[in-house]
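ok so for the tutorial part 2 we go from a plain amino acid sequence to predicted structure tokens. step 1 is just haveing the sequence, like this:
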Amino acid sequence: MDLQKPREKARVVVAMSGGVDSSVTAALLKREGYDVIGLTMQLYDHGAATAKAKACCAGQDIYDARRVAERLAIPHYVMDYETTFKNDVIDRFADSYVRGETPVPCVLCNQTVKFRDLFKAAKDLGADALATGHYAQRLPGSQLHRAVEIARDQSYFLYATTREQLAFIRFPLGGLTKAQTRALATEFELHVADKPDSQDICFVPTGDYAAIVKKLRPEAARGGDIVHIDGRVVGKHEGVVHFTVGQRRGLGVGGEAEPLFVVSVDPDNARIVVGPKAALLRDSFALHSVNWLGEGTLPIDGVQVNVKLRNTHTPVVATVFGGDTAAAAHVVLNSPEAAVSPGQACVFYDGDRVLGGGWIARAPAGYALPHNLRGPRTAAISTGI
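step 2 — the prediction. this is what the tokens look like for a chain of 385 residues:
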């Protein structure tokens, strides 16, 4: 790591979730001679944990982190962030569904609890750096890049990290593959070497996110109509929480000539709008709360980038224009895409480098790209989401 101190004098706090990735991160830094402290966040409590738990930062995982710290002979602390996590992640997750969006809680968690609160805790412990088990690379100049193993890359979830935070954070696993990480865990004789990866949203270990949202925000379970884009009522639903833009399965609508997809979610009228796949295509949309990690400062104007519209999306070419405020932007895609979902993150890339990103905004009906940004190709495009 590029710290200004000799390794034996440099203190590194490692965010230890109890999984194999953060455990190997701590082990590697310990072996390299750093003064390592393990810090685990208590984020929620689902009751008695089991060895089969698939989510991080609760019960069994805290126990696993503690065992690894003992194996490595490093100090280990557990910090209670339950209230903060509920306010900044779980509540905002539920509110996003109420607004008819599809949230990305991992971005919210990185943006708040991990790289705001954990950042401060590491500083309070006298750390020279905070290390995590994310698969991403921090290159000289505090640049954020994709991991070597693209299939494991987590840079999409880190786009909101600030420049100040990137100067302090390190990602030791970014140059490794997952197979190499597990091999190192075996080499270090860590009991979590074969521990399964987390698969679900961490605070929804059962996978039933709708139940969480309905408990916190009952209004998201208000039933209503499923309406075709041609105006026909084609079915009923049991709450907007069950739907996301682009969804095909579980609509409960049949008898149509072609498959139907969710085109938009109208929470104010408890209405789900459906249509053929072609109705999903968008080639421009608005962003809010933009974070810029490239050269210069916001607002950016007319910058060509590659964008990912969700974590599993293949990057596509787009041009980003400044918005009405410094933290807003308009994105124009070179080719229409069907993966534009309000509440998801749109992340900007230059090759493997992350240039920033923002949240895809819900546009009012009839929203169109501002006239001053339209060229011949986009002049007639309307992007009501």
